[in-house]
Amino acid sequence: MKNIMDINLVDLAIGFIAMLIPIALLLYYKVRIIPDVLISLLRMVIQLALVAFYLEWIFEMNQAWINSLWVLVMIIVGIFTSIKRIGLNWKQFVVPFFIAGLTSVIIIDGFFLGFVIKLDYLFDARYFIPITGMILGNSLNHNIVGMTTYFKGLSEKSDLYYFLLTNTGNSKLALQSYIADAIKQGLNPLIATMSVIGLISLPGMMTGQILGGSSPVIAIKYQIMIMLAIFVGCTINLVLSIVFSNAFVFDPYGRLKDGILKKQ
User: Fold this and answer.
1) Within this chain, do residues 72 and 188 fall inside the same structural domain, yes or no?
2) Contact 89, 261 (CB under 8 A)
3) Which 3-state string (H, E, C) describes 172-222?
4) Last residue of some domain: 43, 62, 81?
5) Are residues 118 and 141 in the same domain?
6) The pTM is what?
7) Number of structural domains, the chain?
8) Per-residue pLDDT at 264 exceeds 60
9) Which of 47, 189, 236, 247 is the most buried (most CB within 10 A)?
10) What is the dihedral angle through the alpha carbons of 131, 141, 43, 207, rounded to the nearest 10 degrees?
């Protein structure tokens, strides 16, 4: 294996100078998200610094229950982040989002780690945690877009929904266009990303493996597998989030319950 170029802390700190450019642009155009950017940046640094310490311990222990517990923590953090960013009432959405996230992880990890990579130990931390993290991270982003589209559509076009519900007597038919639009909007960015991988963008996992000394061919095969896992996982997670949420946010008559959106 080739020697890996390390980045010392001083050079890493110098890298933060580049953040002055977007901050200056935000100030110039008076975009009021600078506090959010700085808080997110600080959280990222703290979280990754902690990861650097406890992942070493997790990888060394490599116990199924420890690795599974960490994945559950990732799912829960993702759930509350999604609920907050979408602007939903957490009491109605914690359970359906958790079931959707856990189900998608079990399906994707079971298939890709068990049948594609063929790991002898399915919970091997070096595969189980990073791959699950990439799937959950992408699912978080696309869930936020899809679920925002879904409930925004129901909120702004409630008259159309009730018209369809009254005339068809079928809530599934009345919701079909809203669900289709949510899935389309949620997955469109991922479809666009997939279409330009290799031509315009070089994904982080593939680049990381190449920098780590892996053959480009091996890195590309893993990247293809990861993109398949991410797309399937994001689709399952988004669809299940919508389906399971419907069981909690509509009353027996098909009416959207009050207080679903925090803005209401």
Assistant:
1) yes
2) yes
3) HHHHHHHHHHHHHHHHHHHHHHHHHECCCECCHHHHHHHHCCCCHHHHHHH
4) 62
5) yes
6) 0.82
7) 2
8) no
9) 236
10) 50
